[in-house]
Sequence to fold (312 residues):
Amino acid sequence: MVFNRWFGSDKAIDKGVEKTRQGFFSKVAELFTRETLDEEIWDDLEEALLGADVGVQTTDEILDTLRRQVDSGSIRTNSELKQALQQALVDRLSSEAESQPLLVDGLNVVLIVGVNGVGKTTSIVKLANLWTQEGHKVLLAGGDTFRAAAIEQLKIWGDRADVMVVAHQPGADPGAVVFDAITAAKARGANIVLVDTAGRLHTKTNLMEELRKIRRVIDRHGAERISSILVLDATTGQNGISQAKNFRDAAGLDGIILTKLDGTARGGVIFPIVRELNLPILFIGTGETLEDISVFKPDAFVSALLKEPNRV
Fold:
């Protein structure tokens, strides 16, 4: 069974980006309500994109692309400019890595990484709930053994989602937890093991070695697919890029879950993250309940951002 990452609710994505849209991206949408395409729009568009945290380099690339189309005569109206901007934004949310299947037939072990406080544990259980609804059998592994609270939180959320949790006492070896989780998954016929991991960047060397050890355990005991997903808080803005780079170096990354997008007006940070790291956004958190996670769809995301203010 190959997971189709394009499954998701456009309505949920639309709701999730509401705050971002009402903030800086509403200024972008308003630009295209003008009657004529004039020179002032370039400065206004640059200001709006930078204000939305799209980033200097990504903004410059987008504006250069649009200017060339205007100069060549392929864009003549504000409506055409808006369509071209929408396509340019969608293009910058594409990644070479997104064509790889996240789940394959057999046992899949998915490491979930991220700093503390980004919504890592709740994202794990939301993801487990989503995949369970899709017919997968999921098991959770409490690999963050440094914090007793992380283990307890995972158990509580696991009970709510009716998903089995394998956990040891605080301070236990994370590799041993993962070994037991894989053993339990094979015994129960589960095809996905979701592994919570420690999220302390200030011990980066230890974190890297711990993640390497976990992967060695998985390699020894069998999994058809091993992947790592970073949970990133959208409200951290440009700092999220450096976080992602650190975890990519430590664990290797296959994609990102972007959380708290519904809590920021500066969700444009999603564009430089994809551009600089060449990593796909796989899922976005759109609220606080178990169901508030959506498979990320670039076209639906950009369309929701650029809705005209009177059509929100």
